[in-house]
Amino acid sequence: MSRKMLTLRTKQYFENGMRGNKAVLDIVNLYDDVYRIKRTEDRPDIKVLIADIYICGEADIYDISCNYIDIDCIVLVGFYNRYSRRAKDLARTNNIGLFDMREFYGAVHFVGERMLDYVKKEKK
Questions:
Q1: DSSP for residue 106
Q2: Which helix (H) or strand (E) holds 14?
Q3: HEC letters along 43-87
Q4: DSSP class of residue 124?
Q5: The model scores a pTM over 0.90
Q6: Which of 5, 12, 21, 45 has its Cβ near the most Cβ atoms within 10 Å?
Q7: CA-to-CA separations, 5 to 10, 11, 15, 33, 53, in angstroms, rounded
Q8: What is the Cα–Cα distance from 3 to 26, expressed in whole angstroms?
Q9: What is the pLDDT of residues 34-69, one digit of tens each?
Q10: Helix (H, G, I), strand (E, B), or coil: what is residue 41?
């Protein structure tokens, strides 16, 4: 797997971004790079793994799925992090949302299929 260790600054950036999101009531670091996000408006809590993977592929999704049980989303927090279409599809098959940071800011507002299938709208 090509995951890098996250710096404290990267974790703080994610936490602060989530605390500033209108859909987020609270964020708790459960362990390592796994967070529970409590959401507003009766939306269920979600369990999120944050990761720094330059290009997230299928092998990364297999590895994460085997090592992290019961996560709802994988959020790629590096500015240049991206994922392959096949990685996104595999994560979706496993009922896990795969997002870059910008996408996740929008996805966190939704529940279930709408969250998993969330795609950031392009600027016109």
A1: H
A2: helix 8-19
A3: CCCEEEEEEECCEECHHHHHHHHHHCCCCCEEEECCCCCEECHHH
A4: -
A5: yes
A6: 21
A7: 10, 10, 16, 9, 10
A8: 26
A9: 999 999 999 999 999 999 999 999 999 999 999 998
A10: coil
